[in-house]
Amino acid sequence: MPSTRPAARTHPIRVLIAKPGLDGHDRGAKVVARALRDAGFEVIYAGLRQTPEEIVRAALEEDVDLIGLSILSGAHMTLFPRVLALLKKSDAGNVPVFAGGIIPDEDARRLRKAGIRAIFGPGSTLEEIVSTAQKLARASS
Amino acid sequence: MKGPGRLTPAARAIVDGDRRALARAITAIENGDPAADPILKGLYPRTRGVPVIGFTGPLGVGKSSLINALVGLLRERGRTVAVVAVDPSSPFSGGSVLGDRIRFDRRADDTGVYFRSMASRGAAGGVSAATLETARLLDAAGFDLVLVETVGSGQVDVAIREIASTSIVVLVPHLGDEVQTLKAGLFEISDVFCVNKSDLPGADLAKRDLADLVSLGIASGRWAPLIVGTSTVEPNGLDELWNAVEAHERFLDASGERRAGERRRLANEIVGLVRDRVGRELTERLENDAEMRRLLDRVVARSLDPRAAAELLMTAERRGA
User: Fold this and answer.
1) What is the pLDDT of residue A7?
2) Is B92 a residue whose pLDDT tops 70?
3) Within this chain, do residues B305 and B214 fall inside the same structural domain, yes or no?
4) What is the dihedral of CA B48, B259, B276, B114, to 10 degrees?
5) Pair (B158, B39) in one structural domain
6) In the prediction, which pLDDT does A51 show?
7) Average pLDDT, rounded, for chain B
8) Within a domain: residue B260?
9) Predicted local confidence at residue A8, as pLDDT
10) Which pTM value belongs to this model?
11) What is d(CA B189, CA B255) in angstroms, rounded to the nearest whole number?
């Protein structure tokens, strides 16, 4: 009897891209969403002005493999730790979170320590972002 | 002991309202993960056949916004609602941008709503291969209603008919003249026509063209599609749209069409499952089985034709080779 199960298939990585807080600048998030799409990701684009609660709820409902947050408002030190805390509270602390935007080096260090897995400032290449996202998703699955 | 009422822990969690377990099970269905198997099998007897309302129509007509507005109305009326929104996968990268969620209002603390984005993953027809079983899972999870949004559809994207109990074809003014409405495909599957963006000029003409279409071809005793104008900016017509859906759902029960339709859909589903599985197995054997590879070699060398090769395979399959 031949095996009735298909060989293990590779499936697309699901990533949530969201912008927390009061910040209308979504060009960067859209460019990253498009680059991830072209790299074979399924990008759930949640868009602008999301609260941390909404972001975490979307991540859980969509069962994403990772979360990308984009921020240019300066509120990252408040909003990012809140997202991380809510994920942990929902027993989803293992879902990697990466971020992009205008984040000073000192803040970036502290955010990495708090659990943001990668931070991309101005000048980051799309290749860097895509390959990091792939690595993060692979490591957590 | 494993009686009929026994559920695996994952299936039990879904019935108990665990949204994370639900979300994971949907992923398993999408990925063809064997973990979905016992969940779907265990939950099938618990499905109630809740209304599944399909929203289809060209891209940009406002399907997502319309669904969002309807969810608001349904939540006010105390109904729990699950939404599955399908967007296309790239034929090149396999990737996808699933953007329907941005039209969805913030309901961070409302447990009566569930929203799931889904990529079509190469399936034709406007939905994904996982959409039907996902709708069934949402039924078992206890939602009163399941709303399914297709990808922006073309004239032949009618797969929603295999999933939805009521199909709404969403259109906008100025999509074309009345001859468009005569064409086969999309216009044939509609239980309700919704002319959205009715705040724009031309809405009355669009509704009139549709009314002409409906008056042409309905046999007595059959359902005559209802035509509703809506706008989500004003907002307008949403009650009327939902009334039309409910009228169709009542018709399904009163006419016996619900059972007939369900029977037809389930037959199609079973055939589809067998076709998928047999297809996968044959593909695997053509690649891995030495005898099969020789068969393929003969076809490549033109000493056997594809139809004869298929017959040989079928005969071998029936013998249980």
Assistant:
1) 39
2) yes
3) no
4) -30
5) no
6) 92
7) 90
8) no
9) 42
10) 0.91
11) 18
Both B102 and B181 in a single domain?
A: yes
Q: Would you call A37 and B289 a contact, using CB atoms and an 8 Å cutoff?
A: no
Looking at B204, B225, B254, the residue that finishes a domain is: B254
Question: Which is more confidently placed, A139 or B84?
Answer: B84
Give the mutation candidate from A57, A89, A90 for the B interface (greatest B CB count, under 10 A).
A57
Same domain, B87 and B158: yes
- CB atoms A58 and B106 under 8 Å: no
Whether B317 has its CB under 8 Å from any CB of chain A: the answer is no
Our count of domains for chain B comes to 3
Residue B242 lies in domain? 47-254
Averages of pLDDT over each 10 residues, chain A, 141 residues: 43 95 88 96 92 94 97 92 96 96 95 96 95 93 71
Closest chain A CA to residue B284: A6
Identify residue A93 by its one-letter amino acid code: G
Same domain, B223 and B100: yes
Residue with tokens 């989500």: B232
A11 vs B31: CB contact, 8 Å cut-off?
A: yes
Check CB contact of B104 with chain A, cutoff 8 Å.
no
**Is pLDDT at B64 greater than 70 in this prediction?**
yes
* Beta carbons of A44 and B117 less than 8 Å apart: yes
- Identify the pLDDT of residue B3: 47
Q: Of B72, B43, B225, whose CA–CA distance to B134 is shortest?
A: B43
Number of domains in chain A: 1
Residue B259 within any structural domain of the chain: no
State which residues form the domain around A107. Answer: 14-140
